[in-house]
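Reposting from the mailing list since nobody answered there.

I have sequence plus structure tokens for a pair of proteins and want to know whether others read the tokens the same way I do. The first protein:
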Amino acid sequence: MSKDKRGYGFLIKWLVILGDLIVLNVIFFAVYKWTGMDNADDFNAKLRFIILLLNFSYLFSVYFIPVNIYKPVLFTDKVAQRALSLITMHLIIFIVSLFFLKMETDALPRLIIYYYLLLFLVFTVWRVIAREALKLYRKTGRNYKRVIIVGAEKNGMNLYTELKKEVTYGYHIHGFFDDNLLLKNTLPNYIGTTAEVVDYALQNNIDEIYCTLPASEDEKIIRIFNCAEKNMIRLYIIPEFSRYLKKRLYLENIASMPVLAVRPEPLQFLLNQIVKRAFDIVFSLFFLIVFFPFLYLILGLFIKLSSPGPVIFKQVRTGIYGKDFNCYKFRSMKINADADEKQAERDDPRITKFGLFLRRFNLDELPQFFNVLRGDMSIIGPRPHMLKHTEQYSKLIDKYMVRHLVKPGISGWAQVNGYRGETRTTKQMDDRVKYDVWYLENWTFLLDLKILFVTIFNMFKGEKNAY
């Protein structure tokens, strides 16, 4: 079978781009008619330029956030997330372009609001549908890649299992090459020795070679690599450490030397840091100026009436890179000697009746917006723990200190997934840490917004685990 008959994979990307442009323009004209902009003379005079700018903004956006739904292994949530990121980039470029080209009209702001609200929804749905359609197409036996695996030890078998999980991944695995002839009768499909790899690949139109040989067999690897390069066959090397380190890694370079980071950290990039910090400052200032004075007077009065002591409770907690900082809260407990040693428990006699109300609706955390403004915390991030807990759990949980590579937050990914309140076992803390580490590895601004909205919703609903 020739490569051209396997689904014209090179066209999929361009078909998706064409579909994107159709969606962008159809939604624009639908909103244009629905809002009655076709009767606005000042807008219609610039309509052609606005449409042209709309499409050019997409082409710039897709350059920075390329189409990736054609990739073999890609999950629906990532498709939706990337679609939202693309439209956000499009919005920024479009509005900035309008401003610099002085193309504002009285009718334009209203159209932009309706247009992008609808576009965020429709565009995301379109991209997800396109991905599902591609998966169905692959089930018919088209748009697949012919693959062989070199090396049939544990690493090779693990790779085989992963590639065979889903037909929709689009991999057709011909079989294994290995110099250990004893494996011939135990493998799903033994083809030959490593010396036969390239000849077989050329005769059978192989697209990709996956080499899982150990580093000690570097002569074989180099020979296969050079032959693959000469014959324009893509070669992928599966490192030995994949047997015990099964996670996404991030490739960097020191000069010409490739370096693998153990985890991706989106917040190491300056632009992401600026976006997150800017949002922290703007949102905190807004809350502290508009809402906090009123809340301080009302809540402070009830705190004073509930038990003697200050309104604001200050406790030293562990921050970014393990640095200590003073964390502020509305006081919810009676003054006690165990505040820095013992966490709150269910039916804890130290918690006042009003303090229980504060904790149930997350109101005790509100003074931490001052911590955010000072730079000790972020609005979203792993919750800061008492120093005693940091000392205790850092010895029991291997990845515990990894959560301190980002600023602690008023709310976090673990909290909106049910991990809030008392931690009775090491297993519970280990689960929290997994959510915290996942957050720092997968951070996006949209994820922060999602956590914020869920947190606000939970505040009104009240949380049963908060005590």
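The second protein, same order (residues first, tokens after):
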Amino acid sequence: MNNTLPLKDKFVGALVGTHAGDALGMPVEGFSIDKIRGSFRKIEGFINSRLGIGTYTDDTQMTIGVAESLIDSRDFDGEDMSWRFIRNFEITRGYGPGTIQTLIRIRKGTGWDNASKAVFPEGSYGNGSSKRIAPIGLLYGENTAVLIEQARKASIITHSHPLSINGAQLQAFAIAKALRLDPSENVETNRQSFLTDLTDFSNSLANPYPERMDIICDFLNGNPSEEEIITKLGNNEVSVNSVPTALYCSLRHLDDFREGVLMAVNLGGDTDTIGAMTGAILGASNGINSIPAEWLDNLENGEKGRDYIIALAKRLFELYNEKLTNESI
């Protein structure tokens, strides 16, 4: 991989970027764009809220669980990962009812790969697996076929609908490709390369993902209003109405972590998750130092806060290097 930015910095950027985007969006989760405008005019930084400034939600807590499991298991292990979610669970973080019910069933003995369908027989349409998928994109990005399968397995623990699985796969692929961008290169060159990769990948997924990518291409050639972005890409907790939105915010501000995440959060709706997914992509592209220093300083830093997440990212990078070495032998 030819990249002037240390790859370790990008791993750290992706996981801390998840935390930063999540914490930025958490105070206004569920707000309409009009409510955000009426209350703040425009969000420019962290806002105090029920959990405190810089505090993460279930989005980051579950991302931590994915990373911990991959590191300690040395690979994907669905049983271990599901129990990481259970042991880390704090209801105050804002878990959805479907995820709560699924984790309860696993705790009572339902298999990790069957519990979500016991709650939603057709599978959940939500973005709950996409928001936590960053460690999968980081660890398995060298092999797209493996990434697709590991993202599928990581998704079905709580979200087994094909559109949710596809959303997690697309988000993981985006992080893997962002990791390989060189921020010292021309941003428009990077944008076009990234967009081509995402478009090609989305064509292998179920509709409406390919249709959403067509809209993203059109938007990048124009200057859509925030209302048009919400109407055509979405801003709610459904995978197809949030993953493409995070992709667009990332592509629009590919060289600017701050502006990309602020764009995502100011759209309203599922602000913490769209912020977290955008932060993961832009952190993977631009590294930890692209996150504003004042944001880093204000991130929650308790037992499993900012410093713990940084350490997890470094350990995940070490595992990535081990796998790369072993596979090349």
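Reply #1 (J.P.):
I read it the same way you do. The radius of gyration is 18 Å.
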